[in-house]
Amino acid sequence: CYSSLLSIVCYSSLLSIYVSGPVEEENPEFWRAQGCDLFLCAIPPKVWALPPSQHARILKGQMHNQSGEETVMTMDTFPHAGLLKTYSVDFQIPDSSSTATAYLCGVKTNLNTVGVNAAARNGICKTQKGNEVTSILKWAKDAGKSVGIVTTTRASRKWYSDADMPASAKKEGCTDISQNPSVDPIRVIVIHELCFSMTQRDGRHLISDWQKMKVGKVARYVWNRTDFDAVDPDTTDYLMALFEPGDLRFDVERDPTMDPSIAETTEKAIHQCLWVTSSVSFPVCVSGGRIDQGHHASRASMALHETVAFDNAVAKGLELTNEEETLTLVTADHSHAFTFNGYPFRGQSILGKSPLYGKDMLPYTTLMYGNGPGYKVVDNKRPDIRNVDTQSKDYVQLSAVPLDTETHGGEDVAVLARGPMAHLFHGVQEQSYLAHAMAYAGCVGRDLRHCESRPQHTNTQRILVTTTDDDRNSAPSQVSSISLVTALLAAVLH
Ligand SMILES: *[C@@H]1O[C@H](CO)[C@@H](O)[C@H](O)[C@H]1NC(C)=O
Ligand SMILES: *[C@@H]1O[C@H](CO)[C@@H](O)[C@H](O)[C@H]1NC(C)=O
Ligand SMILES: [Zn+2]
Fold it and tell me: Would the CB of 61 count as within 6 Å of ligand 1?
């Protein structure tokens, strides 16, 4: 998710053939212009939230001994919804780096590239230079807002530092995550990662470099729960928390004495960004990246439990913010080759089996994958799972095609919205629209003309709030205080 904000990383190409998209799409203005036009014609109808995660909703209910289908997840309560088209410039089905560039930078790009426009070629480092694009976190920082990032995965799955980067890549002009100046604006980084290779960069120490960059500020780095809990946002300007040597463990396998949950890290990030700047907008990006990894491993139980943990983080975000002044979004970066099928009975375990058998006289699970590690043939037939506990956390759901790791899917993803300007998130849009709509709502980015007419509108909301909450200061100087919490049901790079 956030690597696009942190870094411009060239990946070595996984693909031996180069595929290119339409040439006009290599110009970032192509995507930016779409964003702007869409604003001008955005007529805000009310759309009720589409369920982005039916399976996790049922699981959440069943974890509370309910039937499940009728359960209301926190994200189900968002009043506005839209759909986003996720294709990348060169592929029908995207990876997470191209989608992150779309929803955070507002520009669609090529597969396996991040923070660059589509004129940059996957794996050809020399095409990086001059094609960099900036993200909404940078725009927010430039507008004096504080920003934060929370995720359950590593920051990047390739190079952690210059030390890991092949000499040829460096010579060609690739830069590493730690060199990117856009690291600087980020007030809280809560990444479940303690990446030791990250600590060496040209003989220097990344974490101490990060601390040195914050001249005259209190910049704290923590790696365990005790220190994390002890961080006081009142006396801390910047916080970096890295908990595990790689990705965080799945939430159901987490050691709560060592690692906080995603809801707890979200709470800390919001406090940190909110306390420091009080009434100024604060984009906080929360990413449940392990959901994606659960699906890649075709362990539906893990993916669904991670989604429930993510929903709890969304609930924490809503609890700590105010709907009148905080825009909250929930979206996914892309879909998976995941299917919810058969005719299971009402209330049947979401991780269970269809009551009706296939033509081969064998049962099948409600959740399956189109491809992935779950492909199996036993005696020329699908495996017999009648005596298999498919609800076990380690169960790997069947798939039709054998692959080591299940692929992403190409379906549109939902975006759910709540709070001021939530009506902008409606209809079927390009995924790159999201960055422009967030910038519009938060009054950051390149085109702020509409913000001149905003104060009155925002004031109205403020006065409304003041009548219900006497503690609230409705001074006109606070008109820009629409806060922005972006919760991303997203995966990180891979
Ligand atoms: C659900 O039911 C089981 C078995 O009756 C019980 O052990 C468990 O505590 C219940 N869980 C909740 C959340 O009510
Ligand atoms: C947490 O980190 C601090 C700083 O490195 C260390 O002093 C402390 O012993 C650690 N606590 C635990 C429980 O590992
Ligand atoms: Zn993925």
Answer: no
